[in-house]
Amino acid sequence: MSSPHTAPSAPSHTAPYYFVPGPSRWPLAGGLSMLVTMAGAAGWVNGTGWGPGVCIAGILAMLLVLYFWFGDAIGESESGQYGERIDLSYRWSMSWFIFSEVMFFGAFFGALFYARAVSMPWLSDLDHKIIWPDFAGHWGNTGPAGTVEQFNVMGPFPIPTINTALLLTSGVTLTIAHHALRAGHRARSALFLFATILLGAIFMGFQAFEYHHAYTELNLKLTSGIYGSTFFMLTGFHGFHVTLGAIMLSVILYRVLRGHFTPENHFGFEGAAWYWHFVDVVWLGLYIVVYWL
């Protein structure tokens, strides 16, 4: 039996040309758990008493499904069922998934651009001054006729800049961990992978503090006009993706410690690293557009 800190021996048989798994209960279970989650969420936002409980139960059920489903995939990989074709399929799948995430954030960045570059100048031109004479066309305004409570905008110092340094550093530590795994230095890879996860956790702690500061001291809320909605949607969804990335890397760290992956075969590590670097790039754009401009 291989040591938890050494790579497992290569499988004794050759992987099939293309592995086709047998029937699985997990797609059906995942679909039902998502249905329960959305039904609970609909009830929650409509003020029903059963909504929160049903929504949380659906989320927990989905997490349980993912745990067993991914466990099956890991078992198939470690048993030598995955060959070059499956590896290529995973790479294409992860690439398209990240592309969908690019489109997801592109929608929010597009909304921010439209509000700042189109709506603000349009609503503050001479024709619209007749309707809203007191409307200020600057970014972070209180809306037509002061329909939004007064608030202060969020600047780049100090927390956003600290968080930028944290994420950039985490990208470096993850790259070091990847190169260490490729060189067969499992302990070094695990150490720098743990450092990456820790930096992500510190990032989320600072963001939670920033949100508390925004609500309690700046009166900046999700309801603070287009500025508040775009600010919290962009930074909030990014924080959610950092959390997901940290969970993915935690699973990879566990697998590294268990002796999974080899210097030649470790796409699970690479896929999680792709995702983390994508999150880093999104933050750089967000840091410039949201906090500086």
Structural overview:
- This protein is an all-alpha fold and 293 residues long.
- The chain folds into two domains: 61 residues, Helix Hairpins (Orthogonal Bundle); 209 residues, Cytochrome c oxidase, subunit III, four-helix bundle (Four Helix Bundle (Hemerythrin (Met), subunit A)).
- The protein is built from eight helices and no strands.
- The radius of gyration is 23 Å and the shape is globular.
- The N and C termini lie far apart (57 Å).
- The N terminus is likely disordered.
Summarize the structure.
This protein has 293 residues and is mainly α. It has helices at residues 26-45, 51-78, 84-123, 126-129, 159-182, 186-216, 225-257, 267-292. Helix 7 packs antiparallel against helix 8 (267-292).
Question: Layout of SSEs?
Answer:
Layout: H1 26-45, H2 51-78, H3 84-123, H4 126-129, H5 159-182, H6 186-216, H7 225-257, H8 267-292
Helix pairs in contact: 1-2, 3-7, 3-8, 5-6, 5-8, 6-7, 7-8
Give descriptors for this structure:
293 residues; 2 domains; mainly alpha; disordered N terminus; Four Helix Bundle (Hemerythrin (Met), subunit A); Helix Hairpins
